[in-house]
Structures are given as structure tokens and as C-alpha cells.
What we know:
The chain is α+β, with helices and mostly antiparallel strands. The chain has 2 domains: 3-136, Fructose-1,6-Bisphosphatase, Chain A, domain 1, CATH 3.30.540.10; 145-255, D-Maltodextrin-Binding Protein, domain 2 (3-Layer(aba) Sandwich). Helix content is 31%, strand content 26%. Strands 4-3-5-6-7-8-9-10 form an 8-stranded mixed β-sheet, with helices on both faces. Strand 8 and strand 9 form a beta hairpin. Helix 1 runs antiparallel to helix 2 and helix 5 (185-193) packs parallel to helix 6 (207-219). It is globular and about 50 Å long. The N and C termini lie far apart (54 Å). One calcium ion (CA) binds next to strand 5. D-MYO-inositol-1-phosphate binds next to strand 5 and helix 3.
Amino acid sequence: MSLFGRVAREAALEAGCYMKRRLGKIKELSFKGEINLVTDVDKKCEALIIRRLKSHFPKHEILAEESGGDRQSCAYRWVIDPLDGTTNYAHNFPFFAVSIALERELKPIVGVVYDPMRDETFYAERDKGAYLNRKRMHVSKERSLSRSLLATGFAYDVKRVLQNNISNFNKFVMSAQAIRRPGSASLDICYVASGRLDGFWEMKLFPWDTAAAVLIAKEAGGKVTRFSGEPYSHYDEDVIVSNSKIHKQMIDVLRSKRRRSWRR
Length: 264
Ligand code: IPD
Ligand code: CA
Ligand code: CA
């Protein structure tokens, strides 16, 4: 494991342990939008991560959800979601994660997603495979969408706009075996990487939601594209992550006009 990878893992672990300790003990909770929460734990975790990264790599840039970016004109940039799944966290629903990626010239080269409740570290470095707690992991082998378990999520403007993923949700409910909405995009994507899910799609995501997890999914043998099938960058908003075998079927469903009905 590279020094970058080791420091990223240590930072994710430190923040994850802190958020686990503070579960159920939030001190400050405020709204960034109508339903978009932020807590003192999000901010403290972000500060812990940045402090550790900066102590090892003072010249590297940072792009972090709560504090934004600092420009250093460096090829290396850390992309951080200190607490992915804040709504779950605020409700003591134990599904949330720390997500840290290192990109070089805008391409992720290290990704760590840490789930403190299950003590699970999803980890990858480019061209070196993907690991779950140091054990190599691979995507599922499922070939049929109708037997696939998928996950998705909804952006915080879901109640205000028409482009809110609900029509896609309806279409997949009719074509997949089942759909889940776990509430942490980075962890959802890592579940595709580990074969627990066969596919994931979502729109209006941010770079910190996906930068680490898409590298992990690709290194586990998964396929990652935009809804159109074009190559995905974590600076794009819409993404499909799959075990590769059901990828085309997922694109076809997203392109289809109407949801399939059980009425023939
Ligand atoms: C959110 C979660 C959620 C996804 C939202 C994200 P946050 O991140 O990943 O699953 O559906 O689009 O914004 O706000 O908990 O870091
Ligand atoms: Ca997030
Ligand atoms: Ca977050």
C-alpha cells in the first residue's frame, strides 16, 4: 500500500471512530436547504481528516463538502465527504460512511470508504484491485436485471423539481428484482463493488459522493458510466455503477419512455 493509501485509511478510521462515538449525541444540527442537514459531527470529522492529510501532504489541494476547496496549483487533490449519509446519522440509522479519494490531474488514484458501524474499509488504488478489510473483492456475476438487487438515492431538491429520479425509480421497480434506498451513495457504490448489490444509479451527485467509491467499483471489476453510457467522471452528476453484466440493461431502462407494467 502506498503512503497516500496508508494516510487516507488512517484519516478515514479516525473520523469514522469519532462519528461512531458521537452517534446519538449530536450537539448542533442545522439545515443547508429544506431537507439537507449538517451537524457538528460532519464539521468535526472534516477538520480531523484535513488536519491529518495536511500534516503529511501540506502542498496537496483539498476539496471537501463542508469547507469547500483550497487552490494550491498542485496535481494532487483530496476529495472528501466526511460523513456520507448525514440524514441517516441524524436519525441514528446505522448506515453512513467516511469517503476520501486522492486524485492526480482530476483522476482518482486512491479511494477509501469506511463504514464505522460495521468496521468495514472499502479500499482501492488504481490498477491494484479493490479490497474489503484487506481481502480482495469483486462485483457480482448476475447477468439478468430481473434478478438484480439495485440501489439508488434522491437529491435534496426531490420535492421541488420534476427531474427528481422518481420516474427512474418507478421504471426499475418494474424491471429489477428489488430496489433499496440505503442513504449513503459512497457506501451504496461500495456494495456494488463487493457484490452485495448488482447495480446503482443516481443523479445530481457531487464529486465527494463518488470519487472514492467509483475507483473502488472499477477496481472490483465494475462498470461506471453516465446514464447516456458515456464515460463518467466524478465531476459529472449522473452515474450508473454495475457489475458490468447488467449495465446495458440498466441504460435501456433509463432510456425507456414508460415504466414496464405488470398489466399486459
Ligand atoms: C447524500 C447521500 C445520499 C444521496 C444524496 C447525497 P450526504 O450525501 O449520499 O445517499 O442520495 O444524493 O447528497 O448529504 O449525506 O453527504
Ligand atoms: Ca454525500
Ligand atoms: Ca456529507
